[in-house]
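note to self: the first set is below, dont mix up w the second
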Amino acid sequence: MKLQSRILLAQLPALLVMAVMLIFGGVTVERLGEQGRSVLAENYRSVLAAERMKESLERLDSAALFRIAGETARADALVERHRPLFESELRVEEANITETGEDAIAASVRRAWTDYQADYERFVAAEPAAARAFYFQELLPTFEVVKADAERVLVLNQDAMVRRSEEAAEHALSTRRSWFAWSALGLVGAVGLGVYVSRRLTGPLRAITESAEQVGEGHLEVRLPRTHVEELDVLANAFNTMAERLRLYRRGADSELARAREAAQAAINSLADPVLVLTLKTDVRATNVAARRLLGIDARTRRLDQVDPDLRDVVEAAHRAVVAEGRPAIPADFARVVITETSDGERAFLPHATPINDSVTGELVGVTVLLQDVSRLRRLDELKGNLVQTVAHELRTPLTSLGMALHLALDERVSGPVGGKLLEFLLTAREDVARLRALVEDLLDLSRIQEGRVVLRKAPVSPQDLLESVRDAVKAAAAERSVEVRLESTGEVQPMEVDRPRTQLALVNIASNAVRHAPAGSTVLLRAVELDGSVRFEIDDAGVGVPTRERERIFEPFARGGGASSPGVGLGLHIAREVARAHGGRVGVGEAEIGGARFWMEVPR
């Protein structure tokens, strides 16, 4: 790179405007995200409460009809269950007044609910002969009033959510336009200033470069003259000061070493996260202020005995990993987060361990463990998961209704003959609804697995039978692409205990991915390999393979590789990884002997 280009890149002050705009953009994105979340947070709970009140009220009305029909036990069971549910949701609504006039509607619901309960008690006490007339004359009208008031709560909050969503969209558009305009102006100004400064500095910097080379060779007596350029004079003074200090440092190696140690301590003290410098025997060599404050470690402590046991176990595990492998132990996700009580309250820490090697011999002499405070990031990750789960739940019912409507529309017995473009449009819509429902189910399964709410029902399963089920599941898709799916024998593999439906789902996702990437006329191979204490399932395809740089990313949510004719949405491999982890196993990808990719999943026996 030319000197002028280097100087242009080095002019950080000239690019300050760009840095400001980047910060402004980040803050804007954060604010827009917060505004979007507030649209749901403020009114969603009232919408949910109104829906649940309506549902419980319908069940209570059903109970009254059961009682008229003589089904007293079923009626009492419904009342016992849904009366407290309605009361609970009504209290939620009364405590969550967010819109003008909503308090009056909530009060109206309360009055109507009180009247309904009183009428219901009178209905229960009435003679069987009079109960039917009482229901239609007294109880049913009161039921309609309560239901209508609950509907008013629902409509009021739904309208508010739509209104706020539109306001947020308008604000986002305005902010985006402003950011683009100021960014363009800042870019033009920064580039112009950089070019001007670089041209002014190109000549005098040659002299500075020559002097720096002499200092690098040990000639610390070199001094730079004044250049009559303000910026270069500042640089010359700094250079001369540096040369003088280097000469002083050379006089006393011990003093220089002490200063370096102090600087290193000051560096780790400046970090907001706890830092522990450990020997190979896990003795504490150094700590920073955050470690002493948050973990309660005394400055003179040489052991980890005072640290919370859970946190100590995580630190020692990270230390052992670095000592065993000789390379940094950096967690890829929140799976290794440890929650502990500190002097500042409950915190979530994620350990990052790096080796300390001798500068001469290269031998490992210690380990640095940084406990990254991810409390806020973890909370944001939970909120993201909750949002995805909520949206998926809300989409399930309308998608089911839409699918049924399309099915009836295509049924000639219901809607009569359908043909031409209309039939084509309806078939396409039905396929799209089916894909959306599959995506919603994947999202819900993924959410349940990540939250640990899935209970694995393990039972003895033959790995060969499991692979045969996987082959049958992808046979139709393989036939459409003219791909053969074949089981490859690797000897007898003993049965194993797994949750068969979920393990089969994971393997089907991997096999489907292989079929999508396999070229027409090729073969996808399935095999099970016996390992020490586990079984390894391998699926080979003859596609283009997976580049090394993408082999970790491809198992992340919504990650999609290139080359597939039907790439999907990128959840299949991620669900496979989560299922493997739920069983205590792991997944990965490498190169297959037939030229494509080999995906594998190891599951403990």
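second set (the one i keep forgetting abt)
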Amino acid sequence: MSYFPYQYYREGQFEAIEFIKSCIANKYNLILEAVSGYGKTISVLSAALDVAEKFNLSILYLCRTKREIEHVISEAKKIQEKKYFPFSFLFSKSDLCLFYQTQYFDNLSLNILCKCLSLANQCYYRSNCYYFDQQILSKILHNLDNIESLLVQAKIYRVCPYELLKRFSLSSRLCIMTYNNFLQEQSFSNVSLTLQNSSKTIVILDEAHNLLDILSELYTFKIKESEIEYSVSEAQRLGLLKLAEKLSSFYPLFNKICFIIDKISAHEKSLIKSELTNFGFDKLNEMQSLLSTCLNTVFVSSNGRYPYVAKNLIKIYLFLNYMLLFLSCPNILLYVDNSDKEKALVFINVDPSEELNSLLNKFWSFIMMSATIGSPKIYCTILKLDPIKTKYYPINSKNLPKKIQVIIDTGLTTKYKKRTSELFKKIAGRIYTISSILSVNTGVYFPSYKVLQETEKALFSYYDLKRPFFKELPNMTIKEANTICSNFKSYKDKGAILFGVQGGRFSEGENFQEGEMRSVIIVGLSIPPPSKQLFLKMSYIKKTYSQNAFLISMLEPAIKKAVQSAGRVTRNTSYSVIFFLDSRFASKSIFGLFPEWIQKNAICTNLDSNSIEKLLDSSSCTL
């Protein structure tokens, strides 16, 4: 195997690589399921590179998070040590822009600002790229490990890191980026430059169990009542008086649409179309034209360094586009959100499978891989994958179950109605007892940040925790996440505690190597709370697929999050232990959906401090 960098194969790995190669060579699509730590990334990369060389193809590797990109970079470098090939990676402009590094702009605003600065030749970072030696560029990128090292090098040479990566990707065999960066419409025109020919490109989709959620989130759009009002003031401030007049007449229409959606039906598109007809599609088209004309010209002030971004006008422009999509697409639905004490219209794509297939069908073939595909039949049905062109390949390691003890606590539940201060004290007691008995790094994964915060409060109020403590925070930067995770891993010989959320940064895609996490505590089932968005999605699934909407929309995703969190210990060669703190995990309907490696090693019992100690002493887990 010319691209496989290790001396030995793991059990079943050689057969898996050969199967992957055969699928790609024959233009079959593949769903690959293997437990975390098996070596999916290196297997797929080795196979894809081998076929790509033979047929002169490129490879696009999509990750869920920016941290996962660094893992793929590490694997690609190991392959390079055996057989060199050029690879690149790409982050969003908001991560890489040096010109506006002291200010925050969303990707849409930053792309337009970048365009304006480039036309005016005001960004010297970008201008310097034209004179940058390709050999120096290759040398710099060959030694990069993460985004921080890239930014350091770019500052030294005073060049635009985004432009460097984009240009280098043109000559790369492999390009690595996040789903968001690739799929967002505002950056796709830039990203597409990295692909010489999509029909000659293999796509690898990592953590593919999240695909529909990722796409649904990307295609969700929200506009508040106040933003309609602010857009009028913004247009007046910019001297766009004709546009301001048009926007003023738009406000009553917004309120009427809110009334219809909220009081009559979120599915009643004919009534919305009637209201827009009464308002006048010609007026809407004129408004769109005015917005389109002005948006590219009002962003940058004369000095270019402190621009004014007309975010409310952008919102109106996008709102009009989404409204037209809503009328023409049955899978685009609307609901009214009053959570911020003001009306807001929210567009959601309850079934982005059409968009996904439209994109994927342009490529040579694709590989979807995950540790938690779940039911392949349901997965393929919901994603609308072609059963003739798509192969499913599960990998089960026979050695893995011997290394892991699974304990399901039937003595508590985190159901919404049960969430009291006493429950959080009880959960904190379990965590304290386990961490006192096991002097190893322990990850604790919660169903939400709210449950995490309440448990943390109880833990430090009632118990004297003597172990180093780290926790995941909402909206952390990649640098903050790297620091927290590195500090936690450094305690692998002493034992620390990491609080995170199921489906969060540290529960999926984060690799914990030998000893870096030997115990995992899953606190509760991450079933989302009732919401308008959830009910709309469930109603659509039931109507369109005739499937169990609760299973597909709520239960199976929650189980996948729990299994992904549990999988953080599977890279250990020594024994590890997983605790599921919720009686629901022991029920037939949920336990039956667990993968075989969890089912075989599970003990269901009502835990307390004595039973925890006895279970661990009597098991073969020497921790």
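remember for set 2: The chain has four domains: 1-85+173-211+352-397, 94-168, 221-349, 400-618.
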